User: Fold these one by one.
Assistant:
Number 1:
Amino acid sequence: MPISPPAHAVLNADGSYSWTTHQGVQEKNVPHYALALFQAVCEAIGTDALNPATTSGLVALGLTRKDALAVIASMDGGMFYKSMEALKRPGMWQDVYRVPVPSGVKAYVKLSPMHPQKCVVISFKPLL
């Protein structure tokens, strides 16, 4: 379920909301990218779609890199949480999902394309 917009959020023409966080970045309550595109690209490039920084989160979740790809393939739009600008790269959007994994817990999965033919799973960690 998407994040509830804060009181200071702006209603956009498309019915979505956007706002600026205390860190000065933009967030919104609708995906910036098509999930199906991420899933197709992840399937095509395999484990290279996972940023090396995801390793510790995968270990904490008891998942292999291949397991993570299976979880990504099983994701649906109802798992979307929010879109946010990258802290280090303003203007680069990242879509965040809260996704159940086989162990029964939920994972925080952040997706962001790096260039047209490759996507990167930026974060894959236990949801605290």
Number 2:
Amino acid sequence: MRSTLKRALFATTVAAAALGFATTSASATALATWTVTNPSGTFSASLKSGTVATLVDTATSQQVDCSTASASGTSTSGTYATGTGLAKITAATFGSAASPCPGPLGSSFTAVLASGSTISVNGSTYSGGVTKGTLSGIRVNLTGDTILGTCKAVITGSASNASYTNSTGELKIAKGTGLKVESATNCSGLLNTGDAATFDATYKLVTPITITSP
């Protein structure tokens, strides 16, 4: 009886140890969800040749099309427990004084990422070298020359339908939803405070980074 009891206790101890190891391994695997490889730690990008960036106020159906746009930021090599913040955009411009973005009724616009703002590039799924996710923390100051003078608006929120492709270094936002017009002053009804908005663009990184997830 005593021998049987010892064998039972031994088996229980071994099983518990094995379970603990398996749990620890599983936890470690769960933590090692995303891997970023970017030797420089920074990146810069501009619109893919032949494409435009388009902002649409979905309430008024008015849109602004930019043929020039750029973005830059940081993306640090390492392993991440979640897909949040795999890259961070710390500067972005849409159009310029020399090449503004045309809008409706002869208007023209330029926009910049608001001072101190950071757009987070977040991954939710990964397959075949393509990461799909969202952009969050968007806060953009938009300035326009309209028939009534200078329009000033602030666009905030997030953008869905984002994807990044390792092989091409392209970050694409396909009519991303989740944006809103936080404020709009003297914008001739083209943009109104509280309106929802979408954004569509394809950026190409000068030097591609690599994002993977097991």
